[in-house]
């Protein structure tokens, strides 16, 4: 029996999420794992936008910021349950992406990168400056999701680290499943056609601008939910989540691993999340190493690490 | 009245710096279609290198010269090591490469120099000059004069010299330029050297006013990029006007609206330009042939 690429990716991911804890030397790694899954979720959105629709965003952290601060503010000011706040954040992100994307995505080239860059920085500026609401650069507390307590009452007692590890792992599986379904749908095929050649896609009747807009909105929702999960598991959030460097990190993770494939992008998220943990010993050199890795991978493994290696393996096997 | 004049004067000073950074973007974009996000690091290197060479005992003019030459050499190295090997790569890859290069340069600067904030003495002292109730620092005049000199110099270079025209030809049509015997590889090298050198000069001129540290590059790159977009990407005249307009807007925002949100002006401008005037003020409408 041959697995389709979709079920192979999901199966591998599920196995990794389930079995990785067996190899954790300490409970600290549950936290690192949860962080990888949160980043993986955001990066899956980048795959849809950049890998399939061929557009670059340099402001996706802005959406993560909206998702995160929705979880911090909506329960306090609107009396919303944190889970409802996640949805509210996603809805705001989607609307904002639609508003910004609609005029921009009719243009070709760098424009979405530039517009999203401006938007992302404006969002992080508001989060930093509106101290009365967001408490500024020092950050703000985020209410508890309450699910761990409910599970405990139902007889499933997980440590905080374990709970968030599995919760984020399941969220990532769900996100990857949705993305892969999209990939195989008519919309997914149309997206890839558009990436291949916009003009050719248009001549076969694809509404190019609308499709790009859809991809942008969907990826904004992914980023927003990942921001929400980050805020909820840390119970604390600072405006850094919306900063320009976070946007760059997201794109870099996706492109390093392989922006055309969900599996590759999640691998990229894992590597770049682990790298700073490993490099704490060489904290001084972190930026140096990160910059070098980015440049070298882009020159020598243009499709990203995972697709390039897969191609080598397949090439050798045939 | 004197208040308005004061805001305008400080706006023109920062605007001149943004114009120089935007010009750096424009030169590289024209020669290679690459938007070089490491442009701000060149500005940082100009300031930081001058600080450290000067501190090591070299007289200020020599330190300035060393900073500009070293940064230009680094620009050439970046082109040879990171941009040329990736020729033909998709836009996303090139964006990541230049961002990677900028992170690398920042990391290196943090190791080679330090994480402190630095400055060196202003060229002509610190006594403010009074103009109709407003004041301006002599160093601001250096910044504005420097920008004007660079623009006139480049204009002469591009219109009056064979080499300058070769650069223009390459930016118009790379293949055609190659066919008439222009060494386009050399043009690329030259463009990176020029762009880095101009960035370093901007850093040198502005450091006595704004101070410098290893991480000032990113903000400047984003502002310069906004200015270049406003003027119309790829147009040197647009870089000058875009930079000055952005500086003035920032000065007025800081003065009359909110100094906290002065940086927001640049990014609101970006969005407004894209929504209403996607080619920028001086950009040409382009059509693609299939």
Description:
The complex is a heterodimer of chains A (318) and B (290). Chain A has helices at residues 5-19, 28-52, 60-77, 82-104, 111-129, 131-134, 147-153, 160-184, 186-196, 198-203, 208-234, 244-257, 262-278, 286-300, 305-317; strands at residues 140-141, 236-237. Chain A is globular and about 55 Å long. Chain A has 318 residues and is mainly α. Chain A starts with a helix and ends with a helix. Chain B has one domain. Chain B has a two-stranded antiparallel ribbon with strand order 1-2. In chain B, helix 2 packs across helix 9 (217-231), helix 6 crosses helix 8 (184-210) and helix 9 (217-231) runs parallel beside helix 11 (262-276). Chain B is globular and about 60 Å long. The termini of chain B are far apart. The model of chain B has no long low-confidence stretch (mean pLDDT 86). The chains are: A mainly alpha (318), B mainly alpha (290). The A-B interface holds A 50, 56, 58, 100, 103-104, 107-111, 113-115, 117-119, 121-122, 125, 129, 199, 244, 248, 251-252, 255, 259, 284-295, 298-299, 302 and B 35, 81-82, 85-86, 89-97, 99-108, 110-111, 218, 222, 225-226, 229, 233, 260-261, 263-264, 266-268, 270-271, 274-275, 278, 288, 290.
């Amino acid at each position: 029996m041959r697995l389709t690429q979709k079920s192979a990716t999901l199966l591998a991911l599920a196995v990794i999420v389930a079995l990785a804890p067996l190899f954790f030397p300490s409970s600290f790694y549950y936290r690192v794992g949860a962080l990888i899954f949160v980043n993986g979720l955001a990066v899956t959105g980048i795959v849809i936008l950049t890998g399939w629709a061929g557009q670059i965003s340099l402001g996706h952290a802005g959406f993560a910021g909206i998702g995160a601060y929705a979880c911090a503010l909506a329960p306090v000011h609107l009396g919303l349950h944190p889970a409802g706040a996640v949805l509210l954040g996603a809805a705001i992100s989607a609307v904002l992406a639609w508003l910004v994307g609609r005029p921009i995505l009719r243009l070709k080239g760098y424009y979405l990168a530039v517009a999203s860059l401006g938007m992302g920085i404006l969002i992080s500026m508001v989060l930093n400056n509106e101290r009365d609401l967001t408490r500024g650069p020092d950050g703000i507390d985020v209410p508890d999701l309450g699910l761990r307590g409910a599970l405990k009452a139902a007889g499933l007692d997980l440590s905080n680290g374990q709970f968030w590890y599995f919760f984020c792992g399941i969220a990532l599986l769900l996100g990857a499943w949705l993305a892969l379904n999209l990939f195989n749908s008519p919309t997914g095929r149309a997206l890839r056609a558009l990436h291949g050649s916009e003009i050719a896609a248009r001549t076969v009747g694809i509404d190019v601008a609308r499709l790009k807009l859809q991809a942008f909105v969907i990826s904004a929702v992914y980023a927003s939910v990942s921001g929400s999960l980050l805020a909820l598991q840390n119970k604390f959030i600072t405006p850094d989540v919306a900063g320009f460097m976070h946007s760059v990190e997201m794109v870099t993770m996706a492109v390093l691993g392989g922006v055309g494939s969900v599996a590759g992008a999640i691998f990229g998220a894992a590597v770049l999340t682990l790298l700073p943990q490993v490099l704490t010993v060489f904290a001084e050199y972190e930026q140096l190493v990160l910059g070098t890795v980015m440049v070298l991978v882009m020159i020598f493994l243009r499709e990203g690490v995972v697709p390039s290696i897969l191609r080598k393996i397949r090439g050798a096997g045939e | 009245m004197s208040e308005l004049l004061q805001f305008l004067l400080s706006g023109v000073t920062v605007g001149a710096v943004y114009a120089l950074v935007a010009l750096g973007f424009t030169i590289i974009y024209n020669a290679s279609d690459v938007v070089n996000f490491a442009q701000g690091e060149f500005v940082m290197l100009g300031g930081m290198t001058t600080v450290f060479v000067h501190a090591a005992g070299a007289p200020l003019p020599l330190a300035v010269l060393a900073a500009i030459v070293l940064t230009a050499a680094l620009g050439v190295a970046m082109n040879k090591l990171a941009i040329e090997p990736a020729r033909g790569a998709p836009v996303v890859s090139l964006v990541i490469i230049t961002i990677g290069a900028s992170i690398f340069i920042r990391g290196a600067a943090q190791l080679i120099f330090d994480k402190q904030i630095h400055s060196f003495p202003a060229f002509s002292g610190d006594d403010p000059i009074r103009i109709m109730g407003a004041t301006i620092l002599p160093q601001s005049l250096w910044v504005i004069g420097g920008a004007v000199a660079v623009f006139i110099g480049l204009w002469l270079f591009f219109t009056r010299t064979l080499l300058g025209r070769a650069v223009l030809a390459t930016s118009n049509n790379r293949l055609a330029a190659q066919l008439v015997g222009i060494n386009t590889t050399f043009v690329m090298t030259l463009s990176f050297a020029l762009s880095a050198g101009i960035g370093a000069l901007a850093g040198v001129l502005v450091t006595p006013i704004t101070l410098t540290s290893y991480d000032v590059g990113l903000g400047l790159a984003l502002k310069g990029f906004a200015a270049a977009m406003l003027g119309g990407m790829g147009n040197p005249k647009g870089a000058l006007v875009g930079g000055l307009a952005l500086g003035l807007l920032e000065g007025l925002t800081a003065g009359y609206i909110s100094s906290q949100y002065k940086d927001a002006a640049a990014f609101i401008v970006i969005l407004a330009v894209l929504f209403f005037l996607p080619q920028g003020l001086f950009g040409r409408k382009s059509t693609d042939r299939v």
